Amino acid sequence: MRAQVGKATFWLSGKWLEIHAIRLGLPVEKYFTSEAILPTSNSTFFNVAKDLIKKCRDYRDSADARAQGFYPYFRRIDDTFGNHVICDGEPKIMIGSNNYLGLAQDERVVEAACDAARRFGSGCTGSRLLNGTIKLHEDLEEALAIFLQREAVLLYSTGFFANQGALISLTEDDDAILCDRENHASIIDGCMFSPAKLVPFRHNSASSLRARLKRLPEASGKLMIMDGVFSMSGDIADLPSIIETAKEFGAFTYVDEAHALGVLGPAGRGTVHHFGLNDDVDLVMGTFSKSLGSMGGFVAGSAEIIEYLKHKSRCLIFTASMAPAVAGGVLKALEIMQAEPERMDALWRNTRKMHDGFRSIGFKIGTTQTPIVPILIGSETKAFHFTQRLYEEGVFATPAIYPAVKYGEAIVRTSFMSSHSDSDLDHVLEIFARLARELGTFDDPVYSEPGRRKNVFDFSLQYANGSEDVRKDAGAPPRNGSSLHAVIPG
Ligand code: PMP
After folding, report:
1. Cα of 158 from ligand 1 centre, angstroms
2. Which DSSP category does 410 fall into?
3. Same structural domain for residues 382 and 303?
4. How many whole angstroms from 366 Cα to the centroid of ligand 1?
């Protein structure tokens, strides 16, 4: 904080000044308002810059949720045994993980990760560009290129960086990025940082994409980006019509296969292969933080695109490369995924069982077609409460509220794995059915009067104005990834 006495200006601690101002009987509010930036020349006493951390001091949401006993985030896992975890000394069935093929705990994967660490150390301590490229990185790039039938692959330290890095590097000032409204946060952030204009289109709608494309200047560069499988709704992108439309207008096409690898397409090659569109999609992105049971991401495309990204992508150049244990573990997981197709079969058996099971209890699970199953609860408070009761009953799931989903349509997001046993899944369904009765889930207006109670935010935090507070941006569509609540597990 800067204080001015006469012509002299001092840099002082805000607290020190506040204490002394109170002692001197000065009007503290005048000098300590967070917004106040007083012009130095006119100020007679203090000059107070905007208090940047006022928002942190005022932040109450997490504390209030904790006080009400249903804070659902950052739960500590003390141990993991396959699809069961130990939290607070109790076992819980994990149905909130993206470990679709159960490979994160596979002994062979863990051993390969350990071997890699023994050989190359615990980290690469440098960027890929400089001292951080090891043989395992190149082996993994080659294995992925063969698997995905692409000329080349480039690894990034996370999937988030892969999307950001590629989007920022591939676009320029006069270009436009056409982005499905429900794309993942890493894509939205990539669009924000890109110099190109962001043009959102209606979720999974080729006609909305067409309308947007028609309005853009013919000569401008266009990049269309789409999740292959949507991380909240679990629906599959309508790639045949979307890609056809994009191509008609000469757009570059880019598909995020984060939730589709190991889940869809022959041998788990993803949505693009599922639809037989590998030759029509210019770039695919994927992560290792889901079916491949680890962390890190990649983009796969033509050799010339990958060569360009290798030398231009700041998210690659200015960060340390993927740790050896990660690369070693993922290489092994990729090998097992191809050698053991029965894992994908089991995943789909479990997926169908849970779709049918939830529907027959009476839950609405939206348009999901995949192991991601969003359970519609309705009100935000009830979604938090439901999740907390699940946890107490030994089931680990996570809620998603606005802006990850629409107002008043909060969900408990569940996702299933090949390694869940029938008895695990039956037990989960039994608990969901019991809690729906206990908590009156089916009496919520989203069930009893569908379509009526939209855009109502009733998360009754101490600082909200009442329990049915309609927020100023009510009516806005979901904006994946734009706040704490949009954090998607994994
Ligand atoms: N894309 C999608 C669709 C995702 O769901 C995620 C992660 N949840 C990412 C990208 C980012 O991947 P990573 O976890 O590897 O950063």
Report:
1. 8
2. E
3. no
4. 21
